[in-house]
Each structure stands twice: as C-alpha cells, then as structure tokens.
Design brief:
Elements lengths: L2 H19 L3 H8 L15 H9 L2 H16 L2 H24 L1
Length: 101
Amino acid sequence: MSASQWRRAMNSAAAAAQSRTGTPRAALAAAAQPAAPEDPYPHSDAPRWLKVLWQTLAPRHVFVLLGVLLYPLVATPFFTFQVGAQALVLGLIALSLTFLG
C-alpha cells in the first residue's frame, strides 16, 4: 500500500466518522481534551511549575534531598569518588545505549 493510498483511506475513514456523528472533528478534539486544573493560588506570581511542585512535595522528598546532600559528608572518599564515579559512568553508558536503541 502506498503512502497516498494510506492517506486516502485514513481521510475517508475520518470523513465517514464525521458524517455518522454529525459533529466536526475540531469539536470532537476539543471535547476530548481534559479541562485545565484550577489554580489553587490565583493571586500568586510564582510560575505554574513551582506551584505544582509545592503541591506535590511530600516529607519523603525532603528526607531524600537531605540524605543526598549529607552523604558526601559522612561517607568515605572511596565511596564518594570511586563508587559514585562508576555509577555515573555506567549510568551514562546505559542512557546512551537506551538512546541508540
């Protein structure tokens, strides 16, 4: 099947669906989109991502952040540099292989 035949088949199927329902595709697409969530802080000047972060922040996130920040102070230099560096290098390799895949 060629690309033009595929496009023609897809367009004819969409046109048939539109004629069956009687509603244009734009109205169907608008109805399918979820409503935007209501802003809990309407008078705040903070960006939206910061408001969402503040809403979803849990105590466990604070504990993990403190653990990550305090780990180099309590761990030996061997773990900090050798194991940490190997984890970063192997993680970079895994990410690059995932990207190539």
